Amino acid sequence: MSTLDTCPAAGPVGGATPTDAQADPAAARAVMVARLEEEGSLRPGPVRDALLALPREVLMPQAYVRRSAPGKEPPRWDLRDWSAPQDRPELLGLLYGGASVLVQHDGEPLLGRARGTRSGASITSMSTVMGLTASLLEELDLRPGLRVLDVGTGAGVTAAVACQVCGDRGVTTLDRDRHLTDAAAARLADLGFRPQVVCGSGEQGVPGREFDRIFVSYTVERVPTALVEQLAPDGKLLAHVTSASPSWPGLAVVGRTADGRITAELRAVEFAHRAGHGMARIWLNEELRQRMATEPGTWTQRSKLAPPADSDRGFWLAADHLLGGGLVRDFGSEHLAIGAPGCGSWMRAEPVGHRRWSVTVQGPRDIWKEIQDLADRWRAARSPDRYRLYFDADGGQRAASECGRLSWQLPATHPRDEGATP
């Protein structure tokens, strides 16, 4: 599994500091599960029971800790190893702290690695933030006997839970990276699970097979058609969908009825998985962030119009697609700040007294006006927080509000393999 594009970092520089309860794996699991229940990501039932029984240190006996400060080049990581007693307290803090767990550096094999320091290159696979994983596993409604396709094996956490709940004979896990599938097969076997482990294209799934549950653990620009075709009657598919911007994702929830009809919706969500292999991404670099925070801009005005609230996620999901797909929000800013890396335009909006906003705009795009114009359209469409998702006969995919007043096409299929998580 991959981690979030917009998630908190995997831990402070220097690694996590475990509590006394995390001094042994069973206590650490109990603390993690209790925390997930308290935050609402997990409820009593089979997923909770599976996570409480799952020794994550078997699936991830090694993990990286970032030792260099953000932005410092070259980056540096230490690989911690469960077989080294001195590493166990820190490794337990990483595995059960709830944040993403860094498991692969620069596409390396996971089996047979020596602990120690790596520098340069990048982390190429992570296990997802646990709260997101738990909530999506709950959404899947796993039950004994279901046939499950886990697309994006990563460290094997989703596959392990599916094996525990549904039985390993019905579980298939798929990833484009053979180093990940080899390690997952070995470590799942150490847990007593022997699902089918496939190295191949995530976009293609497993041709000729049918599944009751399909879980895509990386973000896509559109739902892979082959996976929809492999969905069995009464089945469910989950996949995060977004544009090149990581700021405002959606969760595609696709079902097939007992008589074979496809039903689907796109829900606005706060967080999503990382982008799949080969998917373009746009980001705010540090220079643009600084300009957005400090420069006077082309003009500044006082406005009685408030920007849409953070809780208006249905608006921001529509903005991700209908405002050109080139906008990125700076979530580190105290107030609303949005930039367009492609052309250098930006805006910031700060409250100044009762129902007044100071709005500053810079660049060829008037992002503030674009937002307000779309906000009017969104409200006219009854302020949806989710959209119907249509699969056209020609292969196109379209999202639309219930009333039909707000809609957009998802990007056409690219002639490349999106594969599974990097």
Automatic annotation (TrEMBL):
Compartments, as annotated in UniProt: Cytoplasm
SUPFAM superfamilies: S-adenosyl-L-methionine-dependent methyltransferases
Gene3D superfamilies from the UniProt entry: Vaccinia Virus protein VP39
Keyword annotations of the record: Cytoplasm, Methyltransferase, S-adenosyl-L-methionine, Transferase
Enzyme class label: transferase
GO biological process: methylation
Metal-binding among keywords: no
Record region (Disordered): 1-25
Highest taxon of source: Bacteria
Keyword Acetylation attached: no
One MF term in the entry's GO annotations: methyltransferase activity
Main location: cytoplasm
This enzyme's EC code(s): 2.1.1.77
Compositional bias (Low complexity): 16-25
Family the UniProt entry places it in: Belongs to the methyltransferase superfamily. L-isoaspartyl/D-aspartyl protein methyltransferase family.
Protein name: Protein-L-isoaspartate O-methyltransferase
Native organism: Streptomyces actuosus
